[in-house]
Design goal:
- The protein is built from eleven helices and nine strands.
- By secondary structure, the chain is α/β, with parallel strands linked by helices.
- The chain has one domain: 2-enoyl-CoA Hydratase, Chain A, domain 1.
- Helix 6 crosses helix 7.
- The longest helix is centred in the first third of the chain and has 13 residues.
- The protein is globular and about 45 Å long.
- The N and C termini lie far apart (32 Å).
Length: 202
């Protein structure tokens, strides 16, 4: 349910459970975490999904069994944020719930038209992953972060783009090529140079 393709220094990680809206099980989260921890050697990482939804977050049955509050979510987003190269979330559709953590941890977010973003922690009675609110605020500011986390608003594609939650739009057929193009300079650069620039940005 997780596919990994490595072409040189470019790693493409794909959530491949389209019949379940790429909802994540404990095993999938663990595998994603291990892949991202191993990707320290990658020049660039593209994280995407199959089907019309990037990810609906936690698998419903797994969430009821405690996955919604598992430390695996934070382990995954921490590993993504620590990648020395460029990380790009290639959003093939809507991202919801806990899946927001891995998307926020990426350096860039490219989405197809029709993508929506929502994180219904208030409604469901959960706290967001520990690092998510700060990352969200860094992208869109505190008031808009409250709109998502406290008011439970579903943000559509244009609003997410206007807010800076998304960085670029791409037609579905061009999504992967758009992301590969964005990674071109980093892929061609000296690893140390790319890592230092990323650290300087913060």
């Amino acid at each position: 349910m997780i596919r990994l393709d490595q072409v040189g220094g470019l790693w493409t990680v794909t959530l491949d459970r389209p019949d379940k809206a790429n909802a994540l099980t404990e095993a999938m989260l663990d595998e994603l975490s291990r892949i991202m921890e191993a990707a320290q050697e990658a020049r660039a990482v593209i994280l995407t999904g199959t089907g019309r939804v990037f990810s609906a977050g936690a698998d419903l049955e797994a969430a009821r069994a405690g996955l919604a509050v598992s430390p695996l979510w934070e382990r995954l987003s921490t590993a993504i944020a620590a990648l020395p190269g460029l990380s790009i979330a290639a959003l093939n559709g809507t991202v919801a719930g806990g899946a927001m953590g891995m998307v926020l941890a990426c350096d860039l977010r490219v989405a197809v038209p029709g993508t929506r973003v929502f994180y219904p922690v208030m409604k469901l009675g959960f706290l967001p992953q520990p690092s998510d609110p700060a990352r969200l605020v860094a992208l869109i500011g505190p008031s808009r972060a409250r709109m998502i986390l406290m008011a439970g608003q579903k943000i559509d594609t244009q609003e997410a783009l206007d807010w800076g939650l998304l960085d670029r739009l791409s037609e579905p057929a061009d999504l992967h090529q758009t992301c590969r193009t964005l990674a071109t300079d980093t892929m061609a650069a000296d690893v140390t140079h790319a890592t230092m620039i990323k650290r300087m940005i913060g």
